[in-house]
Amino acid sequence: MWKTVLRRVLIMIPEVIVLSVLVFLLAKAMPGDPFTGSIGPHTSAAQIHQLKVQAGLYNPWYQQYWNWVVHLFHGNLGTSFQYQEPVTRIIGERAINTVWLALFTMVLTYAIAIPMGLYAGRHQNHIGDNIIRVYTFVTMAIPPFVILLIALWIFGYVLGWAPTTGSVSATASGTMGTVLSRLQHIILPGLVASLTGTVNIVQYLRSEVIDAKHSDYVRTARSKGVPTTNVFRHHILRNSLLPIAAFAGYSITGLLGGSVVTEMIFSYPGMGLLFLNSISYRDYTVITALVLLYGLLNLLGTLLSDIILTAVDPRVRVQ
């Protein structure tokens, strides 16, 4: 197993290099610049030109890329043009908010989806299964941003049960007060995001359970007189959860990357909202850092999924 992990890590090195070049070139190919219109309405063209020269935006792309890579290996991702702060500090502050929301969403998603998928597959065509299927079809048919907007309007503005912006209340004091305030801010977006994220897991798990019920090893176990509960627990359940475990790594790293739609609608200051604002302001340093981070998370998600699948499936370990 460790040889496989080491081999995958070595393969990731050239992938990261190619990704960094593409990310840097695509960011530089964006129209506009970070200075025009952001300093003041009366800023002259000569002043903007001087700022571009100081920022090195007129240097050849390969020179800019080399300087960026050298600074990257020294832990310096540059300074944000928009916030005038180090990019590492900005991403670090937003990453804390994203991790809170991601963990809450992920736990809720699997806590809701797995029991629903198992119940629907075990009780196929019963009334409970039909209700779950209607729920998944309706949730899949409605775009997630529509559900988020409706939830924000009802529970945030009409009922006033949840905050509508931010990650921590300005009046929160002390460690416990800050933690409670964070939870209060992530309950509504995390709950709605988890409900919209359960659809694929529920449908996939339901199909796996139904297929497993009609498999040869299940029929053999039942013919030997094994109780139905034991057959479901020891045979159907374990094999049905294997595909879900295989995609767990992608789910974790995808949530850690931040949800642009959720964070934008709830004005939640995470990495997703930071990425959207950086594109609007042509903040190249933040854009390149975030896209590179998302690419690394995607590669790590692939590796993590393989490790999880190896841990839960002995057949993969044998191979």
TrEMBL record:
Member of which family?
Answer: Belongs to the binding-protein-dependent transport system permease family.
Q: Return the PANTHER family for the record.
A: DIPEPTIDE TRANSPORT SYSTEM PERMEASE PROTEIN DPPB-RELATED (PTHR43163)
**Span of domain ABC transmembrane type-1:** 95-305
Instruction: Give the originating organism.
Output: Furfurilactobacillus milii
Q: What is its main location?
A: membrane
Which top-rank group of organisms is this from? Bacteria
Parts of the chain that traverse the membrane: 9-27, 99-120, 132-155, 186-205, 241-266, 286-309
This protein is called ABC transporter permease
The keyword Transmembrane is annotated on this UniProt entry: yes
Q: What is the membrane topology listed in the Swiss-Prot or TrEMBL record?
A: Multi-pass membrane protein
* Location in the cell: Cell membrane
Q: Which residues form a coiled coil?
A: none
Which keywords annotate this record? Cell membrane, Membrane, Transmembrane, Transmembrane helix, Transport
